[in-house]
Design brief:
Protein name: Gfo/Idh/MocA family oxidoreductase
Order of helices and strands: EHEHEHEHEHEHEHHHEEEEEEEHHE
Helix content: 25-40%
Pfam family, one: GFO_IDH_MocA_C3
Radius of gyration: 20 Å
Strand order of the largest sheet: 14-13-12-11-7-10-9-8-15
Largest sheet: 9 strands, mixed
Strand content: 25-35%
Structural class: alpha/beta
Shape: globular
Number of strands: 15
Organism: Citrobacter gillenii
Length: 340
C-alpha cells in the first residue's frame, strides 16, 4: 500500500490533536506543516521532523502530499479547501467547513467534481456517549422520541477575543458562539433526531458585547424530522466550561447526558450506560477523544473508496444551516424552514 503523506495548515492548539492522530495511523506520515508565523511554525516542524512552509499555496505544489488538514481560522477555510481540492489533494477540515450557507454551496460544488475526498471534523459524534445514544435510539429502547433539550454554558473571556481579533466577527468567524462553540451541540441534536425541519431562535450579546460584534448567548425551539420538539440554549457567559447537558425524552423514559456520562432513566431505574474519556494533555478536555477516530475514518475512506462513515460536506452543512437559520430568525422573529 502506498504511503500517504499529510500536511497540516495551521500550527495553533488544535493541530496537535491531528498530529497525534496521524502518528497512530499505519502507512501515514506527516510531511509538512504550514503556518504564517514562521518562528512558531518552523519550531513545530523541526520537532515533528517534517517540512515547513510559510504559505499554503507553496505547499500545494508538493506533488508528494496526498492529504491536507486545515486547522486555521474560519475565514480561511473556503479558499484553502478550494485550492487543495483543485490541486488534487484530499482535504480534512476542522469545523465549520465554511462561514455560511453560501460558502458551503460553493465548496459542495467543487467537492462534487474533485478527485479528492473532503471530510469535516465533527468529533463529538464519535464520543462514546454520542454513539450509545444513536444505538439506543436505533433500537427504540425507550419508544418514540418526544423532545430533546440541550444546554451548553461555557466561559470565554474578553482576552479570548482581543488576543485573536478574527474571533467574534461575522466577516472572519461567521459569528461567534453559535458557529464556534455551540455548532457541535446543534449537530448532535439534528443527528440524533434525523434532521431539523424548522426552528425559531434568538441571539443576543451581554457580558461580551464590548469585545465581540456577534452573540455570546443563543436559544432556539426546534422541530425535528421525526416529529419531536427541541429546546436549545447556549452561552459563553458562564464562569467555567460546564459539560453539555442533553436530555432526550421518549415515551417510556429518558436518555440523559450529564457530567460526560449517559444515563437511561425510566420509572423504575436510573442506569448508567456510558462515559466519555478525557483526551491526553495535548488537547482541551471538551474536544473529547473523537479526533483520532474521525481522522482514522477519513483515511480509511481514502484507502477504501466507497466507504462513507466519515462526515462529508453534505453532513457538515446541516448544522451550519441551523446556525444561519437562528441568525435569520433572530432578525425577523419568524420561524425559519430548513430543507435537509
Amino acid at each position: 500500500m502506498k504511503m500517504l503523506n499529510a500536511a497540516i495548515i495551521g500550527a495553533g492548539a488544535i493541530h496537535r490533536s491531528h498530529v497525534n492522530a496521524l502518528r497512530l495511523l499505519p502507512g501515514v506520515t506527516l510531511r509538512a506543516l504550514v503556518d504564517t508565523d514562521s518562528v512558531n511554525g518552523l519550531q513545530q516542524a523541526m520537532a515533528y521532523n517534517c517540512r515547513f512552509y510559510p504559505n499554503y499555496r507553496e505547499m500545494l505544489l508538493d506533488n508528494d502530499i496526498d492529504v491536507v488538514h486545515i486547522c486555521t481560522p474560519h475565514f480561511e477555510h473556503k479558499n484553502m479547501i478550494l485550492a487543495a481540492l483543485a490541486a488534487g489533494k484530499h482535504v480534512f477540515c476542522e469545523k465549520p467547513v465554511g462561514m455560511n450557507g453560501g460558502e458551503v454551496a460553493d465548496i459542495a460544488d467543487a467537492a462534487a467534481s474533485a478527485p479528492g475526498l473532503l471530510g469535516v471534523c465533527y468529533q463529538n459524534r464519535l464520543n462514546p456517549t454520542s454513539l450509545r445514544i444513536r444505538d439506543e435510539l436505533a433500537k427504540n429502547t425507550l419508544g418514540k422520541m418526544l423532545s430533546m433539550k440541550a444546554v451548553l454554558t461555557w466561559s470565554r473571556s474578553g482576552a479570548y477575543y482581543s488576543d485573536s481579533p478574527w474571533r467574534g466577527r461575522f466577516a472572519r468567524e461567521g459569528g461567534s458562539l453559535l458557529i464556534n462553540q455551540a455548532i457541535h451541540t446543534l449537530d448532535l441534536m439534528q443527528w440524533f433526531a434525523g434532521g431539523v425541519t424548522r426552528l425559531k431562535g434568538v441571539v443576543d450579546s451581554s457580558e461580551l458585547a464590548a469585545v465581540t460584534e456577534a452573540e455570546d448567548s443563543a436559544m432556539a425551539t426546534l422541530h425535528f424530522a421525526n416529529g419531536a420538539r427541541g429546546l436549545f440554549y447556549a452561552s459563553n457567559c458562564n464562569t467555567l466550561d460546564s459539560p453539555l447537558l442533553l436530555e432526550i425524552h421518549c415515551e417510556n423514559g429518558m436518555l440523559q447526558l450529564t457530567d460526560n456520562a449517559l444515563w437511561r432513566v425510566t420509572k423504575d431505574q436510573r442506569l448508567k450506560l456510558e462515559s466519555d474519556g478525557s483526551p491526553d494533555g495535548s488537547a482541551k478536555s471538551y474536544w473529547g477523544l473523537g479526533h483520532q477516530l474521525a481522522i482514522r475514518q477519513f483515511y480509511h475512506a481514502i484507502t477504501h473508496r466507497g466507504q462513507t462513515e466519515y462526515i462529508d460536506i453534505h453532513q457538515a452543512q446541516k448544522s451550519l444551516l441551523m446556525v444561519d437559520a437562528i441568525y435569520r430568525s433572530s432578525l425577523t422573529r419568524q420561524w425559519i424552514n430548513i430543507n435537509n
